[in-house]
Recover the amino acids of this structure.
């Protein structure tokens, strides 16, 4: 019985460790401007969960005014992504099978949509960049973009620069 418990405990520990492993050295998401009030930001997350949020405009303000473009950018923030949120992010990325994604999505027939960029650096030294004009490449990508947008508000960020 003692060996059975030891075996089960070891198996559970290995399963948890395997789930937390990430094949990504950095994950970067950039949301570009549109002709409206689309949030403009870039978030870069390292495999140790440390993150940098570069907030340009329309991220934290309540007002919706084009005058905001004449104001200084909102700032640069640092934080650590919560473990559960990082694990979910990695699961979402893995489910996308990112190396099989197209390099570009979207149609330029409409001229006022934002462009997003997903940049992934892998532990094997390779990288993948996905450009998505209109942020509607696939339903899974749309969900991922919303997840990144939510990270701006559901993590603890410390302002470190303008």
């Amino acid at each position: 019985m003692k060996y059975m418990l030891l075996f089960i405990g070891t198996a559970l520990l290995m399963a948890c460790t395997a789930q937390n492993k990430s094949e990504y050295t950095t994950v970067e998401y950039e949301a570009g401007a549109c002709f409206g009030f689309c949030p403009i930001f870039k978030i870069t997350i390292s495999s140790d969960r440390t993150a940098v949020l570069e907030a340009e405009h329309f991220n934290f303000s309540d007002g919706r005014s084009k005058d905001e473009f004449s104001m200084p950018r909102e700032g640069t923030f640092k934080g650590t992504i919560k473990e559960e949120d990082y694990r979910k992010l990695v699961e979402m990325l893995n489910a996308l099978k990112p190396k099989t994604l197209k390099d570009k999505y979207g149609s330029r027939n409409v001229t006022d949509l934002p462009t997003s960029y997903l940049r992934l650096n892998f532990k094997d030294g390779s990288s993948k960049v996905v450009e998505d004009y209109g942020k509607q490449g696939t339903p899974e990508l749309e969900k991922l973009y919303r997840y990144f947008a939510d990270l701006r508000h559901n993590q603890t960020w410390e302002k470190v620069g303008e």
Q: What stands out?
A: Strands lie at 24-31, 40-46, 50-57, 75-80, 104-105, 115-122, 127-133, 158-161. The CA atoms of residues 14 and 30 lie 34 Å apart. The chain has three helices and eight strands. Residues 2-20 form the longest helix (19 residues).
